[in-house]
Specification:
Elements (H helix, E strand, L loop, with lengths): L12 E11 L5 E11 L3 E2 L4 E2 L6 E9 L5 E10 L24 H9 L6 H22 L28 H6 L8
Antiparallel strand pairs: 1-2, 2-5, 3-4, 5-6
Helix pairs in contact: 1-2
Length: 183
């Protein structure tokens, strides 16, 4: 369903965020993110000039994770940063190694890569990369009954995390009855 008709307008900027997950043959997973920003018109930066066909940002980030959602390796690459020094932040993304995706992920990212240590745009992408990882590994690691009885159990990370996973929602009632809590 498209959004309602907007007022007349002209396109100014396009950000494309592409996230992909790959299951590796060694049992690990690669979560890759690619972000590009492009202006519709020529654009003047303080330290460079960009034509409309040149990106302001063209950045990559790969997280290699295990099935416990722990980062085993991280690699960043900036083909184009907004300013000359931007690519110098890329090696700092190895600081993500050892972090576990889940509650507290965004805070831990800020602690290791916030401020002058990292890149705002790559840091923003990391939240979406965690979601991509969880979506990709959902059937591998989530909602499985540890006693192997075949009953689904709502993982703690999903409980009350959104409208559908509210413990009093019809969805939880119908698909996770052991976790359902009526009002």
């Amino acid at each position: 369903m498209p959004l309602s008709d907007p007022a007349p307008r002209a396109l100014s900027h396009t950000r494309i965020l592409e996230l992909k997950a790959y299951e590796r043959q060694d049992g690990l997973w690669d979560i890759e993110g690619h972000i590009t920003d492009v202006k519709e018109d020529d654009y003047s930066m303080l330290d460079s000039e960009r034509t409309a066909d040149q990106p302001v940002h063209d950045m990559w980030l790969r997280l290699t994770i295990d099935t416990d959602l722990v980062v085993r390796a991280a690699e960043a690459q900036m083909d184009v940063g907004a300013h000359g020094p931007c690519p110098l932040a890329a090696p700092n993304y190895s600081r993500l190694q050892g972090l576990k995706m889940g509650p507290g992920w965004n805070r831990a990212v800020r602690e290791r890569l916030g401020g002058v240590v990292g890149c705002t745009h790559l840091n923003e992408m990391l939240a979406q990369m965690a979601t991509t990882a969880m979506q990709s590994l959902f059937e591998v690691v989530e909602n499985m009954d540890p006693n192997n009885t075949g009953r689904l159990s709502l993982s703690p990370g999903l409980r009350n995390s959104c409208y559908a996973y509210a413990l009093n929602s019809p969805y939880v009632r119908d698909y996770f009855p052991d976790d359902y809590q009526a009002d």
